[in-house]
Amino acid sequence: MASGCDWQETYDQKEPRNPKPYALALLWAVIMAPITLLLGAVQPFTNIPFQVLPLVMVGPFVAAALCKLSVPSWFPSDAPRATTALTKKAWIATALSSLVYVLTLVLLATPGYTPFVVHDWPKPIAVAAVCIGFTFGSWCEEVGFRGIMYRALAAKLGPWPSVVINGVFFGLCHLQYFGVGVLPVSLFVASAVLLDVIMAALWTGSWAHRVLIATAIHSVVNISIEANGTDLAQVYPYVAMLAATIVSALCAVALGRIFKIGDLLPAKQPRQPLNPPTI
After folding, report:
1. Using CA atoms, how far apart are residues 107 and 111, in angstroms rounded to an integer?
2. Maximum separation of any 2 CA atoms in the chain, in Å
């Protein structure tokens, strides 16, 4: 177990808090849905190519910002800040788990011909634009799905129920896959739940830092799928994605236990109180 000296507990006491985690999660979801649909509808009228940044990815961040501005007291207190040693371990474990995902996907997936970059852009610029765009988009999604919804649920339910609920909701929000069929959607939702497992097994420290860990994992998954040119109109790519996520999740859980990081195992990080301690 990590000793108490491994943690520097800091709490924001600038404003009185009356945390309402369930109400916060519900409010964020209600705001996020129409904003995301609106951004998807306006994308064809912008100069932002879908291959560079699907604007629907920005919706969760916009909803999170509106929640923070309108009901800041509903947010649970921040998690304790990790020491430098634990932070390094978390990033090493994140890099290893992400590498395992990429290698497994490359081994199992059948390369497709879906365009990875904007075809009439210089290739180095196009590849860089996709990597930057999808990293930014992943961060926007993580601010909402993990930084708001998971955080709010975990304050009441703990990690495992929050992993399942958040992962299922995240998977079902990807409406573009619904036309492929029930099986691909089910496989994708299972992959989304396991993606939450990977994140919760590895992240440490404050929620700002946890979102960065989640963003790194999420962006690697997105970019590797896009770079493979996978034809997501077929069923097999979803099987390959699920298999890669299973292997990466097993790796993440093992590393979380070895390094004593993450939320999921007996060596989990201390739970933060709903209200900051009074002195």
Report:
1. 10
2. 61
Report the sign of the C-alpha dihedral through residues 124, 135, 43, 180, in that order: positive
Q: According to the model, what pLDDT value does residue 266 have?
A: 61
Contact 27, 72 (CB under 8 A): no
Q: How many Å is the Cα radius of gyration of the chain?
A: 19
Say if CB 195 and CB 221 are below 8 A apart: yes
Closest CA to 162 of 147, 140, 182, 141: 147
Q: Which of 95, 32, 34 is nearest to 67 (CA)?
A: 32
Alpha carbon separation from 279 to 72, 73, 116, 181 (Å, rounded): 22, 19, 55, 56
Total residue count of the chain as it appears in this document: 279
Token look-up 């919760």 returns 200
pTM surpassing 0.70?
A: yes
Phi/psi at 53 (nearest 5 deg)?
A: -155, 105
What sections of the chain are H helices per DSSP? 21-42, 59-70, 84-108, 123-144, 151-157, 159-172, 182-202, 207-227, 236-259
* Among the listed residues 233, 121, 246, the one whose alpha carbon sits nearest the alpha carbon of residue 176: 233
| pLDDT tens per residue across span 202-232 | 999 999 999 999 999 999 999 998 888 777 8
Q: Which two tokens stand for residue 195?
A: 């993606």
Distance between CA 136 and CA 141 in Å, rounded?
9
Q: From residue 116, give the alpha-carbon distance in Å to each of 77, 99, 111, 229, 239.
A: 40, 20, 11, 6, 21
**pLDDT category, 16, cuts 50, 70, 90?**
very low
**pLDDT-above-70 percentage for the chain:** 86
Phi-psi region of 262 (alpha: psi -120 to 50; beta: other; left: phi over 0): left
Q: Which two tokens stand for residue 129?
A: 């634009």
pLDDT band at 124 (very low <50, low <70, confident <90, very high): confident
- The position carrying tokens 């006491």 is 13
Mean pLDDT of 3-16: 39
